[in-house]
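Record Lipid A core-O-antigen ligase-like enyme, 784 aa.
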Amino acid sequence: MKTARFSIFFLIFFTPLAFGTKAPWSYGIMEGMIGAGLFFFALAVIKKQVQPVEVPALVPLLIFLVYILFQVVPLPPGLVKFVSPHAYAIHSRAYELFDAQGWMTLSIHPHSTVFQFFRYASYTAFYLLTIQVLKEKGALQSIALSIAAYGGLLALSSILQLYLTEDMALWFWYTPENSMVMGPYSNHNHYAGLMEMIFPLVLGLFFFYRPRIGETSFIRGIIEILNQEKANIHILIGTSALLVIVSIFVSLSRGAIISTCLALSVFSFLLVRRKTNRRNSLLIIGVIMAVALAMGWFGWDQVFERFAKMKNPEGVLYNTRLEFWKDSFQIIKDFFLTGAGFGGFVHIYPPYKSLIDNRVLNYAHNDYIQLLVEGGIIGFSIIAVFMAVFFFKSFKAFSKRRDAFCVYLYMGSITGMVSILFHSFTDFNLHIGANGLWFAFLAGLAVSAANTNIRGEHSPTRLVSVEGIFKRRVFTGVSMGFVVAVALFLASHLGGAFYLAHIKDKVITSQTSRAELDAIQSIARTASAFDPLLSRSRYFEAVSAIRKNNMDQAELLFRTAIHLAPLNSWYLMRFGRFAARNGQAEKAETAFSLAVQYRPTLPAYTLQYGTWLLSTDRIDQGLALLKTTLELDDEYSDTVIRTLLVANVDHERILTAIPRAPGPMFAYADFLYTVGRQSQGQEIYREMLAILGELDNPKISNYWRVYRFFIRQKNIKDAIAALEKAETAIPGYPEFKIELGDLYRRQGILFKAREKYEQALYVDPNNKKARQRLEKMDSQSTEG
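=>
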């Protein structure tokens, strides 16, 4: 029992400090400690040292876990086609690529789904364990006070870290670029998510430890408060609560700030509902005023500025999350019933992605949308039933409580849960290991607070004990089964990750030695033995087999890798190159087209497919894909142009393949100029003036580029035309006018030169260059 209690105390404090628990090692510690706690508790039950109690709303959670496992069970193709046509289509394309047939899973990435099963199973076990361990008043009181101290110290450390360090989590760990670090988290939203769960708990304790005073004057009331035993605790907990909520505001997490304010409203509602002392209303007002004053010291401007960024330059509320959600709704429509498989969002999202960038989106930034994407309406409904049953049963028990400690602790726990549920509309806090664990902990704490007997009644809890040999055996059997499953999973998952870490950054080329290839293949094979669902190790084996000229083995390994991750465009593209090299044109085309279909916004894939189509004399299809490549990223301009020239595509058709955009057009024009086809290059540069005129926000540098090209050609007429169009398009930029005035002056058209210098001064009265030009013209006119 002591070990089970220790595991709870350890994990609620450790998991946030483990940088939020996002890495395999921290997940391993979390799941291992939960398994150990449950094991020792089950052992105590077997020895009859402790009596287990029934857990509210446990059945929906167990059904949910069974449902996740169902997603990774191989099923007949006909059944998958009936239940989830799009999952069937994805798996069947992978099978057809290798002329094979086989059973399929509802999940489009089984490895991720298995990982998510153990994550949710761990949360369920922690919820169960929390209720079993904290059913005694001593444990409940000690953990509540520990949280108050922990929250205040973590908030103070995080605030100091924010202002004294730069891009460092927990004072020493450098985070990736563009991170908004706060405390031990690399993402400020997730830190704020933890704190918005802790704050209501500490606030509840602050109310409970409020010193009681009678009707007296203000000064005498202060003196009376300070003379009471609870005064020190009350002040310390109040300070902790203030630090926690200030750190939320300082983190600049808009979702957390809004959620915390809503949570305060929920807490106030519960106070009114219970008809507590009216001085509590004054305390709430005091908390709000204290926060306002504290934030005044840190500066409200940064908070207002953060919220102002929600609007685009046109003044319309906009956020990229809206694009993520819009794309996700199409996935929900296609996988409505059973979802794409838990953990599958990062794999299923790219084919539906509308934003053109290279960003990999791991989460939907909305936990409810992601639940529908991955679990479908079935998974969403099961969780909705759990939440409904949980809130109903716990609130029913809470309504009968009169003990102040239980009342305030329940209010704090439920308010913390509600706060993170609000925040989940705009973020993915519940997919962060530590925050998901804390949510499960608050649920267990709420049940314990609503049922624990504080005043020493004959039973420590009002929860029903698990009676009967059969029920006890089922309880211990399920618990031990979970422990064994976790142990096997951790050995498999961490073992596979450990060996894969040795080769994951390896680049296998024709220069890789045979000995190194053998070593890579051996390590990859060991990783696959530990974790059979790990597709990346099979991929490394396949590439090593190609370099060793073992083509049959390579194809077999590619088949396994693609079956395990059918939406992985990199595997498909690499297999397409393998098939093309071995004369399997039909397989190559299928693989290339699937790679582009599954990652339509990645220019490297459209370039590869387009190049291959050109090599097979399908010029029109190839040109269309190369044009798409340049539309996605004009950095590929030189590569695409070289590809077109190597394929002997004529000038007119090349022009059809190049988008009417500055990057590709300039690149092609410069190439024509360097190979002696100056007249064609000049035509493109002339056309560029028309293209630039069509753009909403043309770049100044593009006009300079056109102008300088004509100057190098000593084509003054077109150079003047370029500058005239430039000053018309960007009238507020004086340099165009000055340069145009210089050209007119060199041509002897002095009145036009003067006119342009004067226009430049009108735009920029302090422009020294224009003023000097005019003064020089005036002095020359006087001398003449």
